[in-house]
Each structure stands twice: as C-alpha cells, then as structure tokens.
Amino acid sequence: MKFAVVVFPGSNCDVDMFHAIQDELGEEAVFVPHSEYDLSSFDAILLPGGFSYGDYLRSGAIARFAPIMKAVQEAADEGKPVLGVCNGFQILLESGLLPGAMKQNRDVKFMCRNVKLRVENNKTMFTNQYESGESIVIPIAHGDGNYECDDTTWEEMIKNNQIVFRYDGHNPNGSKDDIAGIMNKRGNVLGMMPHPERAVDSLLGSKDGIRLFQSILILWRENHVVTS
Ligand SMILES: NC(=O)CC[C@H](N)C(=O)O
C-alpha cells in the first residue's frame, strides 16, 4: 500500500509519520510537497502535524490554500483514506473536509504529554483493530486543540457515529464533549489531535498508535488484494 505524507512549510511530524509507515507498518511512504497537484498514484493520504505556515492567522488557515489541497479533496471524494493528525486535523477543518473549528487550549498553553483516549467507534477504516470502548495511550502536542462546533453539527455527528476518539478521564484542552478525533459522514476522512505516529513502539512509551495504521492497511488489503 502506498501512503502520501504531505509536507507543508512548517510541518514537523512528517518524518515521524514516514517512519511509522515505512519502518513500523512496513508499507511504502512518500513525502509529497505542498506545491504538488496530483495524488492519484497513492492509496492513502496522511497530513502530518506541525506549524504549517507558522500557524499564522489560525492553525491550518493558510495551508488550506496550498495546491496539494485540491488533490487531497479529490482523494477524499474518491473514498481514499485521508488522515490528518494535529496540524493535519486543523488543516482538514479549515478546508471544510471535516466540520467544526479549533480554538486555543482552555489553559492557553501548549501541551505535550501522553493522554488516554477512548475508542468510541471501532467500525471504521481507521479503528477496526481496536476494541469498542478500549482505552489507549497516545501523546498530544498542541496549543490549539480545543475542538468546537455548533450544536446542530454535533448532533449530526453523534447520529452518524462520527466521533471516533474521546479523551478518557481528563480532557486536556477543553474540547467540546471531550472530542479527540472525528471523521466525515462517509467515514474515509479522520482528523485527530493526538499523534498515533508517535506511539508505534514500546520504546516510545506506547505502541497503541500502530493499530490505527494497521486498520487502514488490513481493510485496504481486503478490498484490493486477491489472495486466491
Ligand atoms: N503538533 C502539532 O501538529 C501542533 C499543532 C498546532 N500547530 C498547534 O500547536 O496547535
């Protein structure tokens, strides 16, 4: 399976994402610069974390205008898996691929630590290797992780099971309804603030993140690889 790791000026988790795919998952990862227009040769698109364009205006607000975002939109429209982590999630929100917006953390501080997440929906292309309601440990590292949306959007997301992860126990940033990760209605675009690519080996303190990438791969193989 071939994964695109999109790199914006200011991305800083692109190498971690590449490592997670290439070295831990054992699949092909390719860095794709923000200035490209074509993602048609890829099976999945990953928007890594960081400070794209220095977080000027708002996190992700400038990146949404990068040439590559048209190709990300096309990939999403085709039903390919699109995963945005942290700044990648912020970019997906700013570009309208996911509903809602991100505000500054409740305590107006950048936070970098392991957090517990609850897997709210394990019937997705990103979470099928987790148990429903499972508590997992994944690190966060952000200043703007306080997810917000209007009540109509929130009710719609509840109805469609679009809330994929919630903070388990302590909510670190004040996000609405403890939301840590959401997907689109179709189920092929996931945005999450915690960093699964930084939890792929016990040496890193947790390997709970690797199953997210395995989920994408296993489902993709079921749909694309003929075994007999
Ligand atoms: N690690 C990241 O992706 C940081 C996200 C973002 N720029 C913030 O601080 O909110």
From TrEMBL:
Q: Which SMART domains match?
A: GATase_5
Pathways per UniProt: Purine metabolism; IMP biosynthesis via de novo pathway; 5-amino-1-(5-phospho-D-ribosyl)imidazole from N(2)-formyl-N(1)-(5-phospho-D-ribosyl)glycinamide: step 1/2
> Could you tell me which Gene3D superfamilies the record lists for this protein?
3.40.50.880
Claim: Disulfide bond is one of the keywords in the record: no
What are the entry keywords?
ATP-binding, Cytoplasm, Glutamine amidotransferase, Hydrolase, Ligase, Nucleotide-binding, Purine biosynthesis
Task: Give the top-rank taxon of the lineage listed in the UniProt record for this protein.
Answer: Bacteria
User: What stretches pass through the bilayer?
Assistant: none
**Where in the cell does this protein reside?**
Cytoplasm
Per the Swiss-Prot or TrEMBL record, the active site comprises C86, H195, E197
This protein is called Phosphoribosylformylglycinamidine synthase subunit PurQ
